[in-house]
Structure formats: structure tokens, C-alpha cells
Amino acid sequence: MKRIALFLSFVLFHISARSAGIVAIDQAGYLAKGQKVAVLTSPADSFVVTNVHTGAIAFRGAVRPGGAPDVATGTIPYYADFSSLTSPGMYSVRVTSGDSSLYFPIADTVLQPVYRSTLRSYFLQRCGMELPKSLAGPWWHIACHVETDGVFHPTAEGSGAAGVSGGWHDAGDYGKYIVNAGVTAGTLLLAYEMYPMRFNTDDLRIPESGNSVPDLLDEVRYELEWCLTMQAGDGGVFSKVTGTSFEGFVMPENDVAQRYIYRISSTATADFAAAMAQASRVFKPFDPGFSARCLSAARKAWNYLHMHPMIVPPGGFRNPEGTRTGEYGDTNDRDERLWASVELYCTTGDSAAHAYFRANYALQGLVKDAIAWPNVGTLAQFQYLRSSRADVDTKIQGSLRAALMQFCESTLALHDASGFRTALSPQEYSWGSNSKILNNALVLLFGRSEGGSARMEDAAMDQLHYVLGVNALGYSFITGIGPRSARHPHHRPSEADGVADPVPGLVVGGPNSHIGQDAELKSTFTSSTPPALCYLDTMPSYASNETAINWNAPLVFLAGYFAGATPSESNPELRPH
Predict the structure, then answer these.
(1) Helix/strand/coil for 349
(2) What are phi and psi of 86, to 5 degrees?
(3) 546 counts as catalytic
(4) Which residues of 75-86 are buried (b: 16+ CB within 10 A; e: fewer)?
(5) Which of 111, 546, 554, 563 sits CB 3.0–4.6 Å from 490 for a disulfide?
(6) Active site includes 462?
(7) DSSP secondary structure code for residue 38 in this structure
(8) Which tens digit of pLDDT belongs to each residue from 192-224?
(9) Nearest to residue 362, comparing CAs of 400, 388, 398?
């Protein structure tokens, strides 16, 4: 493998040295029957696609100019469409200007490694347990944060120590945050709910593999078990577990500073209630006991929200003086409460939860943005739209469906106007732009599932192409996927483990035109740099190259969806029991 990597690096160096243009391709490859379009940043008349093993030309075509300059990248894009090439193989695109692409495969299985790697990244983010070398490979480490998780912060509603080990490290740091855990778990559970046969593989090489429960659910359960430890006796849920400052770039087991449990918040409580109610119905066929635990916890959290109708704490959670770790602060908890209400209704038919949803579903607009931790309203509305309960309000469903289609059409307009087919406006390349792109793709899939056009599904696939290399930088933004993938993420284990390759399967934040948010971006780019180019594959650039569990969730969803069912995923013996 190292020889292959060195060879590909050699090829890439000579491509870059001899030409100024990029021939951007999906570095994971293309599905045999899917669309295949390389995007060029320099003009050319024609192109050929060559089989790199035989040297034979497999396809010839004319380059199509893109017309007007692309504002986000500052380029005039050109397109090489070879969609009619369906023969499996390893290929390269070469254009008349002399530019060539990296090698890429065409096969029905090209997205299986993407799905498996991006889902396995959660296992490699596990806190509170040993990651054995037999499963984690070079990214193994001993158990971490067992003794130090955690004690109640003086501002929290508790005292002394509590057993809150477990769960996933949230991002490039080792903190654990309920708000981000909720939207991550909810997105992954939704993938299984909507497409169980595409997400039921049980051979991912995690400790639970082979237990006749889909590994996606096993992995989500590891996070949910931690979430359950964060609920107080009155049903409220503590916001996070972190130190008072971000830890150094050390392995997690060497992060021995005191970690604190921070105060209860209504946003954390509502996200918890939603994810637990959703988990209850998803896990019921597999483990009725765990399902009942989740539902009991969801009801306790919902009761807490009922007893505290205003946001808790007033104005939303903020770090107390002396704490400088992640905050996930939100001054509005209406969308979180809405999500909690609809998940409880969908799981139990709870009439009070249903009434809450009907009274509040339109207060913040209808399907007006993609899913994100500060905005779970779209997730709440989509779950209601999917409901088939006997007393569901079909008039509300009709309004939600119309709003979903309108949002998808506006997203398609962004896609069509973009030189690199991204579902993002030039002004939206901010912190975590890749997450925004991927979550917009999810909403397009939602639209397709509700009777929308095939263009929605095609555009969603283009967003996956984008993060896998069809961008003006020619980068795969997913660690370990592709010969020119992100190699230096702002991610502590990847920096501290002594392994040349970063922890695989992690999507980095991506281009961020708000260059003042970290010193690396500010020293490299200016306000006139096209926004989609403001990215650095360097560890210190946390504002463009950090990772986060919520960013990976839509990536797992998309990769699993488009990978489709395979023999291992369609095992007839893998059924709920």
C-alpha cells in the first residue's frame, strides 16, 4: 500500500508541476451507471479517458465550456462528461491542454469503502474504552477519560463526581456535547429508518460486529448510552463534559486534566428527548429493553421541558467564566422542542406532544434551511411529514411537502448556478461549509423521497462528488479517501499518534471565507480570495480543517444511500428479533 501511495504522490507531483489547471474528479470513483463529469479549471477542446492498466483509450469527448466565471472559485469551469463509459476499471482523464486527472475507478462498489470508512470513524472517536489494535489498526489506543469524566462544575446542578465516561469525542478536541450528539444520532438513525436495507451491514469490524444488529445502530447506541448518563433526576440533561480549556495535542489517554459536567440546558434536554424517542422505536425490534429505557428517558426529558416552558438557562447556555471550550450556545430552543415533540408523537402517539407540534410547527417558518445543530426544525418537520399515524394532520403534511419542494427547487438553483455544482451560494462558504453542502444534499434526498424529481437525487450525488474531489482545489475532503485527500486535519489523535496517515473517514470543515477566524487562513488569504479557495490542509487551521461528528453524519447518510444494498448488506439472516 505504501508503494501505491508513493506512486500516486509521484504522479500528482508531476501533474501539478507540468500544468496550471486542475482536472477535478471524484477520487473515490464513479458508479458504473452514474453520471461522470470532470470539471476543468483551464480551457481545453477535447479529452480522452484512458485505462491506466492497459493504456487503451476508453472514451473520447469534447470539452464543454461553462460560460460565465464561477464567483465562488474565481474560475471559468469546463466540463468533460464521460457518463456513457460504464466498463469497470481504473482510469484517468487527459485533456488537450496537457492537464490530467488523478486515477479513479469505475465500479458498482466504489462507494462501499467511503460508507464503511466514514461510519467506522465513529468507532475511532470512541471515548472511555480501549480501541484494540486488532480492530483499530495503527489508530489503536488504551482506554481514555475513565477516571477524569467527570465532576460537576460549580455552576451545575450537582456536586461531586459522576460516571459519564463513554460516547464519542466530539470533534478535533476531546469534549462531549449533548447538543451535537443529538443531531448526529438523529441523522444516523434517520438514515436507517428511511433505508434499512442500505444501512444494515453487520461486518464493519467494530466490537459489536456480528451480533445481528446493524453496525450503524450499534455505533449510535454507544453514543446514546453516554447520553443517558447525562440526565439528571428531574429529567433535565447536562450540556457537556469538557475541561475548562481545550487540551493539548496529546493522545486521549494522556488528557488527564480535570473534566467537568456543565449545567442543564433546555436545548440539550430537547435534543436528548428527540434522539431518545427516535431511538426507542428504531431499537425496539432489536432490543426491547433498551428501547424502553430510551423511551422512559425521553418522557422524563419532555416532562422537564413542560415544567420549564422558557429557555434554560435564561438566554441559552453560555460558558461560565474561566471556561473556553466549545459552547454550542443557542438563544432559541423552539426548534429543539419541536423536534422532541414530533419524535415523541411518532413513537407513542402522545396527544400532548402532537398538540405542541401542531401549535408550533410554523412559528419559525417551513423547511427554510438544511439540518444543523442550531436548526433542527427542518428535521422535526420532515419527521412529521413522514409520519403515517392515523391521526396525523394531512393538511399540515401538505404544507410541509410544498415547503420542502420549494426549498429543494431553490437548492437546485444554487447547484445549477455553481461552476462546481455545489448546493451553496458564494456567501455561504463559512466554518463547516462541507457540512452545509452535505446537509443540503440530504434535504434534496428528502424531496426525492416525497415525490420530487430525479434531478434532486442527481444534485445530491454531486455534493458527494464535491467533497470527494470535484472542487476547484482538487482535494478529497475526507481523510484516507483518495490520493489527494486531507492529511493534516485539526484532530488531536491524528496529530499525536505518530502514524503518518490521519484517522480515516473524517470529513474536514472545508473552505471558509471568514479568514479572520484563524491565523493560518488570515496569513494566507485576503478578502479578495474567492471563497471556495479559502482552505488549508494544515493542522493549525481549525477554521477550515477541523472535524466534527455532526459533519460526518450526513456524509455517512449520503455514502450509504448511494452505495446501495450489497450482498453483505442484504443478508437475509440479519433481521430484527
Answers:
(1) coil
(2) -120, -5
(3) yes
(4) bbbbbbbbeebe
(5) 546
(6) no
(7) E
(8) 999 999 999 999 999 999 999 999 999 999 999
(9) 400
Report yes or no: 455 and 447 within 8 Å, Cβ to Cβ: no
Ordered by start, the domain boundaries in the chain are: 1-106, 112-476+546-563
Cβ partners under 8 Å of residue 550, min gap 6 = 180, 183, 184, 187, 372, 373, 435
Q: Is 173 a catalytic residue?
A: yes
Q: In the structure, what pLDDT confidence band is assigned to residue 1 with cuts at 50, 70 and 90? A: very low
| All residues at 6 or more sequence positions from 319 whose CB lies less than 8 Å from its CB, including other chains | 262, 325, 327, 329
Which residue stretches of 207-287 are H helix?
215-229, 266-283
**pTM to 2 decimal places:** 0.94
In this prediction, residue 348 carries a pLDDT of 98
1-106 and 112-476+546-563 have identical folds = no
Q: Does the structure show a pLDDT above 60 at 568?
A: no
Whether the Cβ atoms of residue 522 and residue 515 lie closer than 8 Å to each other: yes
490 is catalytic: yes
Helix 178-194 crosses helix 215-229 at what angle (to 10 degrees)?
A: 150
Query: 70, 173, 215, 520: which is the annotated catalytic residue?
Result: 173
Fold that domain 1-106 belongs to in CATH: Immunoglobulin-like (2.60.40)
Residue the block writes with cell 494566507: 524
pLDDT tier at 147, thresholds 50, 70, 90: confident
For 479-531, how does the pLDDT look when each residue is reduced to its tens digit (9 = 90+)? 999 999 999 999 999 999 999 999 999 999 999 999 999 999 999 999 999 99
Q: In this structure, which CATH number among 1.10.10.10, 1.50.10.10, 3.40.50.300, 1.10.3210.10 belongs to the domain 112-476+546-563? A: 1.50.10.10
From 153, 354, 490, 491, the catalytic residue: 490
In this model, does residue 3 exceed pLDDT 70?
Answer: no
Residue 138 near residue 198, CB atoms below 8 Å: no
Extract the C-alpha cell encoding 159.
456536586
In the block, cell 489547471 appears at 21
CB atoms within 10 A of CB 215: 24
Selected catalytic residue, list 287, 369, 428, 537: 537
**What is the C-alpha separation between 214 and 446, in angstroms, rounded?**
22
User: Which uninterrupted H or E stretch holds 183?
Assistant: helix 178-194
How does 356-383 read in b/e, with b if 16+ C-beta sit within 10 Å?
A: bbeebbeebebbebbbbbbbbbbbbbbb
Q: Which of 462, 495, 546, 569 is catalytic?
A: 546
> Where does the pLDDT of residue 351 fall: very low under 50, low under 70, confident under 90, or very high at 90 and above?
very high
- As a whole-number percent, the residues of the chain with pLDDT over 70 amount to 94
